[in-house]
Amino acid sequence: MTPANLFADAAPPPEGERFEALLSHKGLLVERIVSSSKIASQEYVQEQDEWVVLLQGEALLQVDGESVQLKSGDYLFIPSRTPHTVLSVSDGALWLAVHLHSR
Predict the structure, then answer these.
(1) Residue 99 and residue 24: Cα distance in Å, rounded?
(2) Which of 63, 67, 77, 78 has the highest CB neighbour count under 10 A?
(3) Is 14 left (phi over 0), alpha (psi -120 to 50) or beta?
(4) pLDDT tens digits, one per residue of 14-45
(5) CA neighbours within 13 Å on the CB side: how many for 29?
């Protein structure tokens, strides 16, 4: 078995975000997100719970109407059906998101 590295090939896209599934298993999805500073703020309202950690960079989110500032190492639990938007993010911000789907 060959290990993978979260920081390998982590150059940001020219704009937007790149989502890469790292593990999908029994209602669990783990994905790596690499962000460009040129993002279009889009509101998400997901059916699954999400736990996210910002591994590197900084970000400003709006979660259920509240501003939330994140820096490297900060993590956040977002319950299902909670509106959330990434308002701004540093170039090359690296996230790990864990989605918990009900079965």
Answers:
(1) 9
(2) 78
(3) alpha
(4) 999 999 999 999 999 999 999 999 998 889 99
(5) 13
